[in-house]
Amino acid sequence: MSQGVCPRVTSYGPFWILSAVLFALSVIDVDTYSCHEVRTAFQLRQVGPLHRVPETPGTDVDLLVCKHQGPSCCTRKMEESYQIAVKRETLHNIHSYSYELEHLISRHSNAFQDMFQYLLSFSQGHLSSLFEGTYSTLSRNALPHVNQLFSSLSLYLRGANVSVDGAIQQFFNNLFPLVYTQLINPGIEGSMMVGSEMADCLRMIRQDVNPFGPHPAIMAQELAGAMGTGRHLSLALEEGLEVMDATGNFSLSRECVKGLVKMVYCSHCRGLTLIKPCVGYCLNVMRGCLASVSELDQPWRRYTSLLEQLTHAMAGHHSLELALLGVRGHIDEALLYAQLHGPLITATVDKVCGLSTGEPTGMQPTSPEVTTLAMTSSTPLPSAGPSQPLPEQKLMRLAHLSSFPLKPSKNNKHSLRTLSREFLMYLQRYKSFFAALPEMLCEGDNVVDDSTCWSGDDVVESYTGRVVGNGLHAQRQNPEVKVRTPNPTLAEVKERLERFNKETQERFPKLGQMEAWEELGSGEIDEGSTTECDDEDGCQASGDGQDKTSHTDVSNERKSTGRQPGGDSPYESPVKPPSVRVVGGSLSAIWMRPWTLVLLLTALCFQWALF
Question: What pLDDT is stored for residue 333 in this prediction?
Answer without folding.
Answer: 96
